[in-house]
Design goal:
This protein is mainly α. The chain folds into three domains: about 1-80, no CATH class; about 80-200, no CATH class; about 200-275, no CATH class. It is about 65% helix and about 5% strand. It is built from eleven helices and two strands, in the order H-H-H-H-H-H-E-E-H-H-H-H-H. It has helices at about 5-30, 40-50, 60-80, 90-105, 110-120, 135-160, 185-200, 210-220, 230-240, 250-260, 265-280, and strands at about 165-170, 175-180. Strands 1-2 form a two-stranded antiparallel sheet. A hairpin with a 4-residue loop joins strand 1 and strand 2 (about 175-180). Helix 1 packs across helix 2 (about 40-50). The mean pLDDT is about 85.
Length: about 280
């Protein structure tokens, strides 16, 4: 980070040097004062140099720092390459390349490890490191919006990899953390259980003709009484498997049904008659 924000870090370094000079001078003058507290004095001088006009800063160091950081931050963003707290569009554009570099460097690492590293960095307080330590509330707000978008992006990337991430915010401590859950493994486990359940279901033996099975399956498909997301081909494959019927071309059978001239739905008529007869017998 220091190699990017050159002017900002240079300014902060010079500020610290000026602060040290003022503290040293005052310490020399007050060396005989037994009540002199070097720590308290440094904090007071630091505040005055930062907020008030002095021989070093005509309007106070804070305004100079704010202007220098703002310009340098914009310049770096305009160049369009990644740095910590760059614009989100740059972060999103460079994410894949940085992930690939990570995988090349750590061949056996799961991609989610890179994602976790990124989250760890962006969940730290904005003023965790230079040159962001001295940002005012307005500047922190600007970078805060960037951080929020990046964190949401990382959460979405985690879902693609099969992980669920929950962001925890401790408003009292001003800290953020995350919890990660491997939903991919959980989904795989559920899928295996579902497959086991399906495999354990006993199939039936179809006693009718292939044409009759085609009529039944097509009627159920067209009435939307079966899974709407399944294609016609998928539905017929399941019927054939469940009913223990040899594979046949349902397209040919459907053509036969469409060619019927008198009774278009003989099987459905038989089913209706059979059910009505059962009702009458019970009544």
């Amino acid at each position: 980070m220091s190699e990017l924000f050159i002017r900002t870090n240079k300014f902060l370094k010079e500020f610290q040097e000026n602060l040290n000079l003022e503290v040293s001078a005052l310490s020399f003058e007050s060396s005989s004062d037994e009540y002199f507290n070097i720590d308290d004095t440094e904090e007071k001088i630091k505040y005055l140099l930062w907020e008030s006009p002095s021989k070093y800063y005509s309007l106070g160091a804070r305004l100079d720092y704010k202007e220098i950081f703002k310009k340098e931050h914009k310049e770096l963003n305009d160049k369009g390459f990644y740095f910590h707290y760059c614009k989100f569009k740059t972060y999103e554009r460079t994410y894949k390349d940085r992930l690939n570099n990570f995988k090349e460097k750590y061949e056996d690492a799961d991609p989610v490890y890179f994602l976790q590293d990124e989250l760890t960095e962006y969940l730290k307080p904005i003023d965790f490191e230079q040159p962001f330590k001295s940002l005012d509330l307005e500047q922190q707000k600007v970078l805060g919006f960037t951080r929020d978008r990046i964190v949401r992006f990382l959460v979405e990337q985690a879902k693609i990899l099969g992980y669920n991430i929950t962001i925890n915010v401790d408003e009292f401590e001003w800290t953020m953390s995350y919890e990660i859950e491997d939903i991919k493994s959980e989904n795989d486990s559920l899928r295996l259980k579902a497959n086991d359940t399906i495999n354990n279901i006993k199939s039936l033996k179809w006693q009718g003709t292939e044409l009759q099975l085609t009529e039944l399956a097509k009627a159920l498909k067209e009435s939307n009484l079966l899974n709407p997301e399944l294609s016609q081909k998928a539905i017929f494959e399941r019927f054939k498997e469940f009913m223990q019927v040899e594979n046949f071309n349902e397209a040919d059978k459907l053509k036969e049904i469409r060619k019927r001239t008198k009774d278009k739905t003989p099987l459905l008529n038989i089913l209706e008659t059979s059910l009505n007869n059962w009702i009458h017998r019970k009544d």
